[in-house]
C-alpha cells in the first residue's frame, strides 16, 4: 500500500489527503465493498483479479481514508498501459458500470481533482468513469470532463411475485419463446465446469464472428470462473444433445448479472436464449436476488436494444465520463471501429480468435 502526498488542490479543503491502495491485497477493500450500497460485482476482488490475470492491468483505489483507518470512500481503477492505444485509468475495463463509492459530492470532487493531477504526472491520456447514478453530473461539469458517452442499462425488478415478473415480459418476443423452448424439451446444463466453458466459448466465437468482432480471449473466461468461484455460472441449452445457446451470469449480494450470451442461429426458432435467461432469473429470485442486471447497451445498437426492451421496458441511462475529452477506440460511430469491422468481416474464426487474444488488452 502506498500513500500519496497531498493533492495540489484548493486550499479551502486542507483536511483532505489522497491515498492509493491495491484492492486485491488490502482486506479493507473487500469489507468496504460488502457494506457499501453502491457497490456491484464489478467492484469485487474476483472481478479485479480476473482483469489483472488476463490483461496485466494494475488495479488501484484512490481514497481519502488513511492507510490505518477504515475506508470511507474509494474510486477503483485499472491502469491500462498500451503502446497501441495509450495509457489511461479506466473504472473499469470490460465492466458495464462501476459507481464511484463516495458518500458526498465533496469527497468525489476532491478525488477527481487529484486524479487530474495524476494524469499529468504519469503522462496518461485520460481517465474514465462508468456511473449508474447521476452523482457525476454536477461534479464532472466543474472538473472539465468531456461530453459523456451514453448507454442504456436494463435492470429487471425481481421483488414482485415470480408470476408477475413473467407477465411483465413481452408476450410475443419473450413469453411465447420461453414456452416454445419448454415444448421443445431443451436440456440445460449449468455450472463452472471446463466442459461447459468449452461449449460456451465455441458458441461465443461463432456469435462474435456474426457481429464482425473478434472474440474476447478464452483466458478471460477461464480466469473469470476461477476468480469469481461460486459467483459465476455458465448455462448451456442442448437440443438433441447439441449445444445451441449459452449465457454467463454473475452474482453479488442481492443482484444477479447477465454478462455474456451466444447462440447457434440455426436454432433460433426454439427460443433457447430467452429460456436460459428465464431459468437464470427464476433461480436468482429463489436465492434471494432482488434485481437481474442485463448490462449496458449503446444507444445506437438497435437490435440489442430492442431485445432487452422486451425484458425491461424502461431502461435507465448509463453514462461514461472521460477526463479530458478524447476520442475512444470503441465508439460505435468512430471511423476506426467501422474500418476494423470491415477487416474483421473477412477473417475466418481462427484468425478472429487470434486477433482477439492480441488486441483486447489494448482496448479495455
Question: What do you see in this structure?
Answer:
The chain is of the alpha+beta class. It folds into two domains: about 1-150 and about 320-325, Aminopeptidase (3-Layer(aba) Sandwich); about 160-290 and about 345-360, Aminopeptidase. It has helices at about 25-35, 45-55, 105-120, 135-140, 160-165, 170-185, 195-210, 220-230, 270-285, 300-310, 335-345, 350-360; strands spanning about 1-5, 20, 60-65, 75-80, 90, 125-130, 150-155, 185-190, 230-240, 240-250, 255-265, 290-300, 315-325. A 13-stranded mixed beta sheet has the order 1-2-3-4-5-6-13-7-12-11-10-9-8, with helices on both faces. The longest helix has 18 residues, at about 105-120. The two termini are about 25 Å apart.
Descriptive tags:
disordered N terminus; Aminopeptidase; alpha+beta; 12 helices; 37% helix; 13-stranded mixed β-sheet; globular; 2 domains; 364 residues; 23% strand
The major beta sheet can be summarized as: 13 strands, mixed
Mean pLDDT level? 88
CATH architecture of the largest domain: 3-Layer(aba) Sandwich
For the biggest β-sheet, the strand order reads 1-2-3-4-5-6-13-7-12-11-10-9-8
Q: What's the total helix number?
A: 12
Task: Give the strand tally.
Answer: 13
Strand content: 15-25%
* End-to-end distance: 24 Å
**CATH homologous superfamily assignment of the largest domain:** Gcn5-related N-acetyltransferase (GNAT)
Helix content estimate: 25-40%
Rounded to an integer in angstroms, the radius of gyration calculated over CA atoms is: 21 Å
Taken in chain order, the helices and strands follow as EEHHEEEHEHEHHEHHEEEHEHEHH
Number of domains: 2
Which spans have pLDDT < 50 for at least 5 consecutive residues?
3-14, 330-335
Overall shape: globular
From the helix content, strand content and strand pairing, which structural class follows?
Answer: alpha+beta
Do you know the CATH topology of the largest domain? Aminopeptidase
Q: What is the CATH class of the largest domain? A: Alpha Beta
